[in-house]
Amino acid sequence: MSDNDKLQALLRGDLWNEFCDSLKAAGNQVLAEDTPDDPLSRAEGFRYLTRLLRLSLEKNLEFGDPWHPQFYSLSHETAKIGNDNPDNFYQNCAVDGRCTYRISGNVGTVDYLSIETKAGSYVGGGDMQPTGHIALGEIDTDAEGNFTLLVSASEQPGNWLSMSEQSDNILVRQTFRDRASERRAELQIECLDPRGSAVLDPAQFAAQLEGVVPFVTGTAGLFREWMAGFRAHTNQLPPNDQSMCLRAGGDPSIYYHNTYWELAPDQALLIEFTPPKVCRVWNLQVSNYWMESLDYRYHRICINRHNAHYEADGSVRIVVSEGNPGEAWPNWLTTAGHVCGSLLLRYVEAQDHPPIATRVVSLDELAAAGSAG
């Protein structure tokens, strides 16, 4: 359909009707045969679609202009994608790889900061191909932490983040040790060679509206496929296919372990490993079946390098369960009423990736082991 045909379909109301019909069909992602049908997972699945719709409206309509760019967040406390990190503050921005951008700001006190350019999205099962990456240690700042960074397809002097002509978005990760006590980086962006005006263009709006629901169904479908694959190693934590993670927007400085977990109310998953000696950040999180981190506003569902309890030999023992196994197990993460979901362990800037041991035990076993210890 040409741009003019899309515009005419919008003006007649046909495009709006198609939007509503395709949104209705997105519910098939939640009702698929390979998805759990317990009441909590099913309800969260439909909530997930409403959240993805909210994010897609932001991405495609409100913040979809690459010539008048603004940072916004495509994962946060109440809308989440692809095992979002509870220790992160995410920012996103639409760009055009043929243009040049200037990011300015202050790095704050965050433990890790990365800024990446990407090409593509999850529409139609597509990928977010990485086209450029820069991390905190590579950014020159002044004594107060202020900096400027040029973003373009052609190399620039000083702080520079590469793009390709196909790049269409920027992803920023800010990772905290303790979110409540740290000051996040403050970033602004401007396009140095903008095109057009900031006034709503009806034809452009028609094209943007057409992309809203495909993002919803593409995102839900991609991570539903991931979860189906993770079932092959239920309650284990093997390394991911790292290239798969990169194509889905992962950070090249992060090493990922993803899995599917499933536990009865009287069971726990015991996770034991020795973190790498050289590693800027590690954390482990509990998520639901839709690969949304569980609600970290109200539940302890994530543990990281800085707040974990370590054994005398430097190892870490983490318990994931619905019931609290007691004070003998300080690294307890709750499943918050869920019977299944996903787990993610990530290492940032690690020089090695030690093996991870997991086993399902009963809460009674944990209580007896704690008493014996």
Molecular structure report:
The chain is α+β, with helices and mostly antiparallel strands. The protein folds into two domains: 3-193 and 203-217, Sandwich (Jelly Rolls), CATH 2.60.120; 234-372, Sandwich (Jelly Rolls). 25% of the residues lie in helices and 27% in strands. It is built from eight helices and 16 strands. It has helices at 3-12, 14-25, 28-31, 39-62, 202-210, 212-230, 242-247, 363-372; strands at residues 88-94, 101-106, 112-119, 129-135, 146-152, 160-162, 169-175, 186-191, 254-262, 267-273, 281-287, 302-304, 316-321, 332-334, 340-348, 357-362. The strands form four sheets. The chain has a four-stranded antiparallel β-sheet with strand order 1-7-3-4, with no helix packed on it. Helix 1 packs across helix 5 (202-210) and helix 4 (39-62) crosses helix 6. The longest helix is centred in the N-terminal third of the chain and has 24 residues, at 39-62. The model has no long low-confidence stretch (mean pLDDT 95).
Characteristics:
single chain, 373 residues, alpha+beta, Jelly Rolls, 2 domains, 4-stranded antiparallel sheet, 8 helices, 16 strands, 25% helix
Task: Give a quick summary of the entry.
This protein has 373 residues and is of the alpha+beta class. It has eight helices and 16 strands.
